[in-house]
Amino acid sequence: MSRPPILLTGATGLLGRRLQPALEALGDCHGLGFSTAPAKGFRVDLTDRAATSSLLDELRPVIVVHAAALTDVDLCERDPAAAHRLNVEATRHLVDWARAAGNDLRLVYISTDQVYDSPGDSPEEAVDPVNVYALSKLWAEDLVRRLPRGLVLRTNFFGFGDARHRTFVDWVVESCRAGREITLFQDVYFNPLHVEEAAFLIARLALGEGVGTYNLGASGGGLSKGRFIRLMAEHLGLPSDGFRDGSLADVGLDARRPHDMRMAVGAVEALLQEGMPDLVESIGRLTLDRRQDLAS
Ligand SMILES: NC(=O)c1ccc[n+]([C@@H]2O[C@H](COP(=O)([O-])OP(=O)(O)OC[C@H]3O[C@@H](n4cnc5c(N)ncnc54)[C@H](OP(=O)(O)O)[C@@H]3O)[C@@H](O)[C@H]2O)c1
Predict the structure, then answer these.
(1) Domains detected in the chain
(2) 21-30, 191-200, 249-258: lowest mean pLDDT where?
(3) For the chain, how far is it from start to end, CA to CA, in angstroms?
(4) Which of 70, 213, 215, 236 is the most exposed place for a label (fewest CB within 10 A)?
(5) Is the dihedral of CA 61, 63, 69, 71 positive or negative?
(6) 35 in ligand 1 pocket by Cβ < 6 Å?
């Protein structure tokens, strides 16, 4: 049986680097980067409509997983035009190409839990964006849903980064080791997946038939960011001298942040006919990542 040609945007990003091997296991996956090209793939500026169309014309993918984005929430707030160019217009270029090519393209759009801010687990219809990043992602989602085979996956994930991409987990580890103070938000809740789990589930969903919008998060009711950091530190044996309980209001950020990004995951569990990973167990996976890191 021939392997479906798949294109992954954002292949050089935190998620993309994990997602490309997961997609490669299911199809013939080329990745796209911007500053650098992935090992199997190309560089392209997705904000350039002509360059994007000509690459798509050449590769003729049947599935595009679109993970490229301007993900710096504060930068989006300071420069909404840049957020619009990459998060909205680049998505429009993909959607327009799909329409011109006959609408058969399966476009899978990676969105975010930042679109929510209501107490408890938010179902897919309960969006409440509080910053430019969330608005730009919702705008792009709307374009993708116009395609008959469009799939929007709202997610969040955590994991170690690399030299180019430092992550929240890296920042916590580095701050603990340096003895820097860390404010543990008691008033911000989320239910992210481990990045490897997110990649595996996205690949499965991309190859499936589900359309529309789904939350893709962990089960178990979520955690405050403060509790998440404490559990992480326990698992990784990090010093916790710099921990200080506090609230989002204690730090000055350019963009407003949601207080509660927890996503209800019943719909995606029904689609996949299996439960989502448990958040506390997923945090434990970081210990294994660290051991593999040290061994390599
Ligand atoms: N990070 C999170 O915690 C998080 C949470 C929820 C949802 N998400 C969503 O998940 C997706 C992946 O996020 P991520 O954290 O993996 O992103 P990331 O690490 O910030 O990587 C962004 C990707 O976009 C590419 N890119 C930037 N400008 C581009 C351009 N003009 N043309 C083409 N590609 C361009 C980058 O390429 P180069 O690196 O080669 O420049 C990189 O591959 C995004 O859609 C994001 O909104 C992320």
Answers:
(1) 5-164+191-219+262-276 (3.40.50.720)
(2) 249-258
(3) 35
(4) 236
(5) negative
(6) yes
> What are the backbone angles phi and psi of residue 169, rounded to the nearest 5°?
-65, -45
Q: How far apart are CA 113 and CA 155, in angstroms?
A: 5
Structure tokens at 34: 């911007």
Instruction: Print burial letters for 32-64: b (CB count within 10 Å at least 16), e (below 16).
Output: bbbeebbeebeebebbebeebbebbeebebebb
Instruction: Say what the pLDDT of residue 165 is.
Output: 84
Q: Which atom of ligand 1 is nearest to the CA of 10?
A: 43
- Minimum CA distance residue for ligand 1 atom 19: 13
For residue 31, the 8-state DSSP code is E
Report how far ligand 1's centroid is from the alpha carbon of 146 (Å).
Answer: 23
Which pTM value belongs to this model?
A: 0.96
- Find residue 5's DSSP bridge partners: 28
